[in-house]
Write a structure and sequence with these properties.
eight-stranded parallel beta sheet, 16 helices, 16 strands, binds zinc ion
Length: 466
Amino acid sequence: VSTRTVYRCASAWLPDGHLATDVDVAVADGRIVDIGPAEAAREAAADDDRERAAPAAVEHLRGLVLPGLANAHSHAFHRALRGRTHHDGGTFWTWRERMYAVAARLDPDRLHALARATFAEMVLAGITAVGEFHYLHHAPDGRPYPDPTTMGAAVVTAAREAGIRLTLLDTCYLAGGIGQPLTGAQRRFGDGDAAGWARRAEALATRYAADDEVIVGAAVHSVRAVPPEAIASVAAWAERHGAPLHVHVSEQPGENAACQAGYGCTPTQLLAAHGALGPRTTVVHATHVGPDDIALLAASGSVVCLCPTTERDLGDGIGPARALHHAGLPLVLGTDGHARIDPFEEARSLELDQRLVHLERGVLPLARLVDALTVDGHRSLGRDDAGRLEVGARADLVAVDLASVRTAGATDRDAIAAVVFAASAADVTDVVVGGRRVVRDGVHVLGDVATLLAGAVAAVTEELPS
Ligand SMILES: [Zn+2]
């Protein structure tokens, strides 16, 4: 007999894109088993109880309840850089040197502590699933740990403890640039060749094959870091495993120029020519893609992940979201470098940046912004059964306060717009992940997440030059 819990929601965002009030969401074994008007669901639960003799507990969720949010692109350890890279200007490339200094200081325990605290910050913000683009594979000198899955396992344990569902995007990273060896901090990213990467990825996939909360997916770091034959190998591995495949694409004009110089084509064209595009592929950033690239992406059925707060933090540019949307490409979102962790800020930036570019409002439909954070985001992470409040879906519920100073005054009709355009991560009061209440009244089950973050960040930054 399974325990059944009814979450009584003051209001909820349902799959047909409308807001319903007084909704009961019944949950058993981590899934939504019934959903409907409060009274009807209560009666159904009572019938069910008589048959199975398991009384349903009732829990109340106030505000607007959304499906669990998906963070499709994360490098958890970048959280240690927050606030530390703004003193002396610079570019993406000078920022990268700071990031490498942190990367060089991570061992399995420090990575675990930093990822655990960062993932807990995400859950507090309403994020129930994350795609961790993971390339810290080996010891700082590049030698494998005795168990080569040690660093990946540290990320998995961190996610489990933080209560977030994980897609571990195990990243192939073989070169320091086209035709260049890995140097310095990059040495620990490399597996030698695509076969070395595949052996380690296979070991991780086997280790977590029975874990319902973990998907091991594949990633190509970029066309700068992975030669074309290796891109084809990684794509073939993902195909064999039916796994998601993520890749950084055209984040910087310099990447496009290097690809043209090395291969005579754009990064998107190179990926297409080596079998790396398709419905299980998510291209990350796509900030500097052209019309031909967009047509290729759309024809392949790929997904595009934009990371607006990171792209503006790094001075990358504004991606062509309007053109991508008009081409029919699903758009999803990631907090990437974690300059902020606020899914609402990512979603509204997708639209607001386009307003600045095109001098018009309503470039992207509001429902698309919500889909980017929910159903499309989960799909990008290899989950077709999350991100919707419907029977059979995973029981991921996020309650957003409609009575905070940011959201107060919105009517039911305006609530979703108020949340997307004005709420912050701090307005998330309660989070249920797979039927388990991980955040209650703004408090995470791990306790004081700010203290966890401070300790984990200090451990990797205290000896860095400021
Ligand atoms: Zn990234």
